[in-house]
Amino acid sequence: MNQKSILSHIFDNPFNKLKVGAAAKKTQNKEALRLYRDILKFSIEFDWANKNGETWRDIIRKSARKEFEIAKNESDPFMVMRMIMTSREAMQKTREKLNEEYFKLNTTLSERTKTDEENKIQ
How far apart are alpha carbons 98 and 57 in whole angstroms? Predict the structure, then answer.
């Protein structure tokens, strides 16, 4: 095959000819395990309960466990990486939103404290 036909073959079937070796599979497994641990660590920050009395920490952990159990049978390496990337992105967005809400709460509390102190002085 000449260079032009090789390139056209690759561009016509980009995913069909790619093979994922044992090293890549091992890397994916490590990344999935790292993600799972990160989710468990992150869930510690959700210590309040829902209306049924179950803590969000436990709900997040159960949900993560369920998702990882379902995903462990996935054999398509591209789908595995897609799931990992999607989960990381969702966790990052949740972390950002949580930080924003903590900031708003702290700002509100600071303003109330300042107002209370001013009222005591008067």
Answer: 14
- On the question of pLDDT at 96 being above 90, the answer is yes
Token reading at 66: 């369920």
* Cα 30–Cα 22–Cα 15 angle in degrees, nearest 5: 100
CA distances from 90 to 11, 50, 76 (A): 31, 20, 21
Structure tokens at 37: 């641990």
Looking at the whole model, is its pTM more than 0.85? Answer: no
Kindly compute the dihedral angle of the four CA atoms of residues 105, 106, 110, 115, in this order, to the nearest 10 degrees: 0
DSSP state of 2: -
Q: Is the pLDDT of residue 109 over 70?
A: yes
DSSP H/E element including 13: none
